[in-house]
Amino acid sequence: MDRFDVLLVDHTSRFGRNQAECIRYKEELKLLGKTVVFVSQGIISGSDRDFLSERINETMDEGYSRNLSRYITEGLVRKAESGLHVGPSPLGFKSELKAGTREHKVPDPATIPILFMALKEYATGDYSYREVANHLNADGYRTQNGRFFTGYNLRDILSNRFYEGKVVYHQGLPDEQIINGSHKVPEDVHQLWLRCQIIKKERTNQTTGRPRRENHDYPFSHVLKCHHCGNSYHGEAVYYKDTTKLRLIHERHSHGKQCNIMPKSRSVDSLNREFAERVLAYVNLDKGWKTRVMAVILNGGVTENKANQDQANRLSKVLENLRKQHLWGDISDGDYRREKADLERQIKTLTPDTTPIEMPNMERAAQLLNEMPALWQHPGVTNKQRESLVQEVFNKISIDGDALVTVEPKPEYAPLFAEMLTHTLNGYREFDSPPPPPNPTHVLRNPGRFRFPGGQR
Ligand SMILES: [Zn+2]
Predict the structure, then answer these.
(1) Helix 51-72 and helix 19-31: axis angle, to 10°?
(2) Secondary structure (DSSP) of 142-200
(3) 450 C-alpha vs ligand 1 centroid, how far in Å?
(4) Which terminus of the chain, N or C, has fewer Cβ atoms within 10 Å?
């Protein structure tokens, strides 16, 4: 009804039941020109800078919501445990409520012919899901919602163990349960459904179904480099009998020169752990970071710009004289305009950049950094998300064979790392050969590499 322009939501977890739903409704609101703001997390939905935290929050919220729903639906579990089907009736069946008994499913004379036809056709082995669906539609049959049948409907029917007499609770989830149902499946339906399973299995063994590709995500891809020769590491999946291990491996082709660093590869799991222990354990900005970072940035500018400022003042006086000469008619309009433009350009380059430092961006960066250790270890965060975290914050992470040695943050994160080094990072002095004390101004202006304790062998 177009009664609002901005929707303020307390927390991402209040917006939708799962990530897919969140994305869908946000998209719809965006098309209508509405803005969604998650107030307590300070996220403007859909903005580039909040993209990462928004997605990660949605994922973690979904995990939370799944846990919650597991408790809420305990009643449904009990129902399933007593062999009663949970949810809407499968095709060919309907709900029956009789006094003294709980709701249960019985064959529905109105729709069971559709089920028969579908199972019979598929059991011949001559038709695909889609073809069977087309035949049902051509015969005038429709789904319970009055829609045309699709291949997906057939796939669902043929994977629904209800027709085998079972009740499946939370299919595909960790707490999946398969229970003998209390409903009666007509024997001919049961037999047909089982015959369809054989056809289905034969088909998947052939070329029609390709095995689903596993996700291979390497949190440090494109960022991890050899400290010795600078070569990149690339991801490789190593297949064992019943498990796949992901590793990052030193590039073999070194331009002419041999790199003797050992070992040549590291498992993704151990790198993740080491990154948490050696780097993220020190990532922490306390309350005073902002004041200190601001002070350094402002002081750094003053002395450097003193000479420039004097020069700019001189040029301003020249400009003032030029204006008077023009006023008195001593120089032509054209000359005046040309010289004025020239002087103004020079003054501008000498004047210190007074653009306010973008603190909101830095605050967001600080927030992400402070959340990073918890996010990194959160069971709901995937390696793909870890990869985006790493790529958001770091240009380069270098490894000396078996240990991470330095990190090179992106310029927008560099002042915060400098702050951590100079203020928070107490372990910094524990090095075998301590580097010169960092000059905060220098670090801020030359975002560079940062060594972490334990990073040196
Ligand atoms: Zn190397």
Answers:
(1) 130
(2) --TTSPPP-HHHHHHHHT-GGGGTEEEESTTSTT-EEEE-SSPPPHHHHHHHHHHHHHH
(3) 19
(4) N
Ligand 1 center to 404 CA (angstroms): 13
| Owner of token pair 């004025």 | 340
> Which residue bears the tokens 């040309």?
338
Angle among Cα 79, 82, 84 to the nearest 5 degrees reads: 60
Residue ending a domain, among 72, 100, 116, is 72
Per-residue pLDDT reduced to its tens digit, 35-90: 999 888 788 988 877 878 787 877 777 766 665 565 555 666 667 777 777 777 89
Write down the pLDDT at residue 200: 86
- State both tokens at 289: 């970071």
Query: 141 to each of 118, 310, 455, how far by Cα in Å?
Result: 11, 88, 68
- Amino acid occupying residue 257: K
Query: What are the tokens at 250?
Result: 């030193």
Among residues 334, 350, 366, the one where a domain terminates is: 350
Q: Which residues, 6 or more positions from 10, have their beta carbon under 8 angstroms from its beta carbon?
A: 38, 39, 40
Rounded to the nearest whole angstrom, what is the distance from the C-alpha of residue 141 to the centroid of ligand 1?
66
Q: Which helix (H) or strand (E) holds 43?
A: strand 43-44
E strands, 81-188, in order: 93-96, 104-107, 166-169, 177-180
Per the structure block, which two tokens stand in for 418? 């400098």
Residue 256 Cα, ligand 1 centroid: separation in angstroms? 12
